[in-house]
Design goal:
The chain is mostly helical. The chain has a domain of 30 residues. The chain has 2 helices and no strands. The protein is elongated and about 60 Å long.
Length: 63
C-alpha cells in the first residue's frame, strides 16, 4: 500500500486572524526629500513608515 506524503507548508506569512487585516492600500507620490524625511521620522520612533503614517493621519484629517 503506498504511503501518502504530507503536503509541504506554503511559503510566506500565514493569514492574519479575521478582523486584523488591512482592507485598502493607499498609494501616495512624494518627493525624494519627503520620503527621506518620513523614513527618518519613522526610524526615530522605532516604527515602520506605515505605522508612523497611521499614527499621524488622525491629526491630519481631524479625527
Amino acid at each position: 500500500m503506498p504511503t501518502s506524503k504530507p503536503k509541504p507548508k506554503k511559503p510566506g506569512r500565514p493569514p492574519l486572524p479575521k478582523g486584523n487585516s488591512k482592507a485598502v492600500m493607499l498609494r501616495v507620490r512624494v518627493t525624494t526629500d519627503e520620503r527621506a524625511a518620513i523614513e527618518t521620522a519613522a526610524k526615530t520612533k522605532n516604527q515602520t513608515v506605515s505605522e508612523w503614517l497611521r499614527s499621524k493621519l488622525p491629526a491630519m484629517i481631524g479625527a
